[in-house]
Design brief:
This protein has 8 helices and 10 strands. The chain has 2 domains: 147 residues, 3-Layer(aba) Sandwich (Rossmann fold); 115 residues, 3-Layer(aba) Sandwich (Rossmann fold). Helix 4 runs parallel beside helix 5. It has 285 residues and is α/β, with parallel strands linked by helices.
């Protein structure tokens, strides 16, 4: 990584937030809005409904009302007050029976660097975010994806916008290469005004951890951690014991112990860690 890359801003200019318009999605929406504000990025709130169903705009999350609750806008502010905060918000109601295809079609024309998805984690997944939609969307889009389990510890308060990221966990291996993931975590923490402790966890034989360059221009306190045993169990155990406010994973194909976090096992991770999980594809990291 070059010095210029170290000095670059948070690499997000478009946040894509699919929603099922349920109350359960409110916390994920708060995360999407808070990150968009921090990155000065565009935010798309996206919903897919059946061809014969109408979607009233009032059913979408209230951007201005939430910003007013956070003390960033006066109550009753007009729509044009939002761009003054450095973000553009678009609400999109698509028609169709396939949320995955509709989302990918939209992203083909308007690529996003971050997707924010609500999941029901420990309680199963709703229609919009069942594994048949959520995981293929995250993989096919090729973007960073923040999964926010419903009812779990979020790091953004929907009530006042406060950010709480004290403990983070980033599993690392030789492949996929995690170096730029450290950079993204550092920039995200800086943009959110957070000063977390982040464990760089390697699970495997002693001496098998990858060589990492700890960023010096970040508020994050990184710590190298070594464990042996089952990768999934070690990640879950450590995430629960901290407890972690955020788990970050660099994901790729069939490489190293992080393979255990692909496919249906990802649902198990989301259910069990009980905190937001940021997946960064290898091409991004």
């Amino acid at each position: 990584m070059t010095d210029a890359e170290h000095e670059s801003p948070l690499p997000i200019d478009h946040v894509f937030h699919p929603t099922d318009l349920s109350h359960a999605s409110e916390v994920a929406f708060a995360h999407a809005l808070r990150v968009a504000l921090a990155a000065k990025a565009a935010l798309t709130i996206f919903h897919v409904e059946a061809e014969d169903a109408g979607v009233p705009w009032s059913a979408f999350p209230g951007v201005r009302s939430m910003l007013a609750g956070w003390g960033l806008l006066p109550p009753g502010s007009p729509k044009h007050a939002v761009p003054a905060l450095g973000i553009e918000v678009e609400k999109v109601a698509a028609r169709g029976k396939d949320p995955l295809r509709a989302s990918l079609d939209y992203l083909a024309g308007f690529p996003a660097q971050l997707i924010v998805l609500s999941t029901h984690g420990r309680e199963g997944l709703p229609r919009w975010l069942h594994s048949a939609v959520a995981e293929p969307l995250a993989r096919a889009a090729g973007a960073m994806t923040l999964f926010v389990p419903h009812g779990a510890r979020g790091f953004v308060s929907a009530a006042d916008g406060a950010v709480r990221v004290r403990e983070g966990l980033l599993p690392v291996d030789v492949t996929p290469q995690p170096q730029v993931a450290l950079h993204v975590v550092g920039k995200l923490a800086q943009a959110l005004g957070a000063t977390p402790h982040v464990g760089l966890l390697h699970v495997g034989p002693a001496g098998g951890a990858p060589s990492l360059r700890i960023p010096g221009d970040t508020s994050v306190r990184f710590e190298r951690l070594e464990r042996e045993g089952d990768a999934l169990e070690e990640i879950v155990t450590l995430a629960d014991s901290l407890p972690a406010d955020l788990v970050v994973m660099t994901t790729a194909g069939h490489h190293g112990f992080l393979d255990a976090l692909r496919g249906s096992t990802t649902e198990r991770v989301l259910r069990r860690v009980g905190c937001p999980l940021l997946a960064i594809p290898e091409k991004n990291a």
